[in-house]
Write a structure and sequence with these properties.
With 248 residues, this protein is of the alpha/beta class. It has six helices and 14 strands. The longest helix has 11 residues. It is globular, with a radius of gyration of 17 Å.
């Protein structure tokens, strides 16, 4: 199974990266809808698209306003947007306020169940779990027969984190790493993660591979977070890049 990273930056785009968005084309699944969503039509192969929002900070939902073009450039007939009920309401009332955007795109808003799972194409399922982040956020685990992955952004990794049990043993972990270790204190203050604890988490939970995402847009360097540090702890670590295709 293949996942494609459309956007790997947090907060705002830069010359190298757009904000959070990933797609699993064969399943018609999208994770977050940041500014990179304009790239989606190139990869869409299904007639339906299921978009799962971790939360509704603007860097994760701006791409919903691109849905008209996404529909026009693809074979899509159905789009469903999943999120917590209060987050869906915020999108409806604010992002698509007539004062901000002229017309609501044709999608179905679907509240994520508080407990349980969402069925995915190909016999898969998605389960969500809470993350600590200002305003609240969710992480996702996606499982198909023989394939599994987890998507964790935005949150801090520390001893009080309750989500690690949900990602144990996944073949692929996408995890935010907004800061390098030199900004560890600032990571905790802002509700984000830094390099060493993320790599330690991947090792501890026995994941197959780790891809670092939601990177700080203030840096366009080849290595903005200290990749060697992460690989010394968990060798199967890669830095997320827009357009990167990952098999899991």
């Amino acid at each position: 199974m293949k996942l494609i990273l459309l956007g790997t930056a947090g907060y705002h785009p830069n010359e190298r990266r757009h904000t959070s968005c990933a797609i699993i084309p064969e399943a018609g699944v999208m994770l977050d809808a940041g500014t990179a969503m304009f790239r989606a039509p190139k990869y869409l192969v299904t007639e339906s698209l299921e978009i799962f929002l971790t939360h509704t900070h603007l860097d994760h939902i701006a791409g919903l306003t691109y849905l008209f073009n996404t529909l026009a450039q693809s074979r899509l007939t159905t789009v469903r947007v999943y999120a917590e009920q209060e987050k869906l309401r915020a999108v409806e009332e604010h992002l698509f306020s007539e004062h901000l955007f002229p017309k609501r795109p044709p999608y179905e808003a679907v509240p994520l169940p508080e407990a349980g799972e969402v069925k995915l194409a190909g016999g898969g399922r998605l389960t969500s779990f809470p993350l600590k982040h200002p305003g609240g956020a969710l992480g996702f685990r996606l499982d198909w027969p023989g394939h599994s992955m987890a998507y964790v952004t935005d949150t801090s990794v520390d001893a009080t984190a309750e989500y690690p049990q949900h990602i144990e043993g996944v073949h692929l972990l996408l995890h935010e790493c907004f800061f390098g270790d030199e900004a560890a204190e600032w990571a905790q203050t802002t509700g984000h993660s830094h390099t060493t604890p993320v790599a330690q988490l991947a090792r501890r939970m026995g994941v197959g591979q780790l891809v670092l995402i939601h990177l700080n847009p203030l840096s366009t360097a080849d290595d903005p977070i200290g990749l060697d540090t992460a690989r010394a702890i968990f060798p199967k670590t890669r830095l997320g890049e827009d357009g990167l295709e990952v098999e899991f």
